[in-house]
Structure formats: structure tokens, C-alpha cells
Write a structure and sequence with these properties.
Oligomer: single chain
Low-confidence stretches: 1-14
Distance between the termini: 51 Å
Order of helices and strands: HEEEHEEHEEHEEEE
Number of strands: 11
Number of helices: 4
Helix content: 10-25%
Radius of gyration: 18 Å
Strand content: 25-35%
């Protein structure tokens, strides 16, 4: 039996085969966040790395120093747990590998907590954070991030749902055991793999995360 015109058009939708289950292709970039947009204060802004560092010391960069760190560009998708996917963005910024090299974790570190403005946090396994495509983004498609989308810095972890990459990042904590972040404490899946459709905590199996 032949396809209808609608079925043929749907089959030809660019990028559809690249979508994780339950996602839809998004042409624009919706603005989604919890709470107010913070005001950027360049003279007091600081990016900190603390917790179980290899040296035991805290590492920090002011905004000017952070922006002079080695830069990378990654072309990658963004999958939001609200079911939209934005494909093929060109993200520019500082790779997580650079931060791990400049401020290395202690050997026993297994997880990180990424801290953002207003005390917002998101936890990740160290391997997810260190993935080759993960970066602290300052630009998208050659343009600086807008404040609504996380200026001056947001984390992008393309292989996980986008809530795992907070906007307005201010710090990174190395942890020797897992601990749930803001949304993970409020019913979102502790890992957040869109290809496994790990959206909510009730889907977790033993080993996915700490007890709620």
C-alpha cells in the first residue's frame, strides 16, 4: 500500500530519524527556566571549582580569565525533557575536559554537581560530564548567548536531557558519592538519558541514583 502525501512529508522531515523517543523537532529555541533571570555582574562574577579536587584547593576564574581559557566548538543537539529537540547547534565555549585538566578531581571522584545562580544545581556522573561533547557554552551559532538562554555561561551535555546543563553556571563541585540536584530532588530522573527516555524518578532502577 502506498503512503499518503502526509505520510510521505512526515517521512521526509529533516532530522526526524535523529530524535530520541517521545521528542519533536523544534525550529526555534524556546526560553524555559525556573525563577527570575539573574543580573550579570562582571566585576564580581566568578567560576569556582571546589570539593574533592586533586590538590585539595579551590580553583577559580573571574569572567575575564574564564573567557581567555582555551576554546572549543561542538556541533550537537539539545533535547529538552518538555519534549522538544533542537538539532545541529554550533556551541562555542570551554570544554569540560579543559576544566578537568586545569582543576583536576581527586582519584576517588565519581560525580559532579554543577552550581548556578540562585543555588540551582544539577548532578552528573563524572563520565557524562567529561564526555567529548560536553562544554561550558558561551556562544551558539557564533553569537553570544542571550541572558535568557544562560549568558554568560551554561553547561551543554548533548547526550543528556537539557536540564542536566544549567544556565548561568557559577561553579563545579567534585563529589566522591552521588547527590541529587535541584530537579533531581523534585521528581526528575537522576541520569536523564533521552535515548532511554529517562524523564522521571519513578522510572529509576536500582543503581540509577540515591534514594529520594
Amino acid at each position: 500500500m502506498g503512503q499518503s502525501e502526509n505520510e510521505q512529508a512526515r517521512a521526509q522531515e529533516p532530522g526526524e530519524a535523529e530524535l530520541p523517543p517521545g521528542q519533536r523537532l523544534q525550529r526555534g529555541w524556546p526560553v524555559l527556566h525556573y525563577g527570575p533571570v539573574p543580573r550579570f555582574k562582571p566585576l564580581t562574577w566568578e567560576f569556582q571549582v571546589f570539593g574533592a579536587t586533586a590538590s585539595g584547593d579551590k580553583h577559580s576564574w573571574d569572567h575575564e580569565g574564564f573567557m581567555t581559557l582555551p576554546r572549543t566548538t561542538v556541533t550537537a543537539d539539545l533535547h529538552c525533557v518538555t519534549r522538544f529537540s533542537m538539532l545541529g547547534s554550533r556551541w562555542g565555549g570551554v570544554s569540560t575536559a579543559t576544566i578537568l585538566e586545569l582543576a583536576p578531581p581527586a582519584p576517588e571522584v565519581t560525580h559532579v554537581m554543577v552550581w548556578a545562580e540562585y543555588g540551582f544545581s544539577s548532578n552528573l556522573r563524572l563520565a557524562d560530564f567529561a564526555d567529548d561533547s560536553s562544554l561550558f557554552a558561551t556562544h551558539r551559532n557564533g553569537d553570544p548567548l542571550t541572558v535568557e538562554h544562560g549568558f554568560p555561561v551554561r553547561l551543554v551535555v548533548p547526550h543528556l536531557y537539557a536540564w542536566k546543563g544549567p544556565k548561568w553556571v557559577r561553579g563545579l563541585e567534585y563529589m566522591t558519592a552521588d547527590r541529587r540536584g535541584f530537579w533531581e530532588e523534585r521528581g526528575y530522573h537522576n541520569i536523564g538519558d533521552p535515548w532511554a527516555e529517562q524523564r522521571y524518578s519513578y522510572q529509576e532502577v536500582p543503581g540509577d541514583g540515591p534514594e529520594l
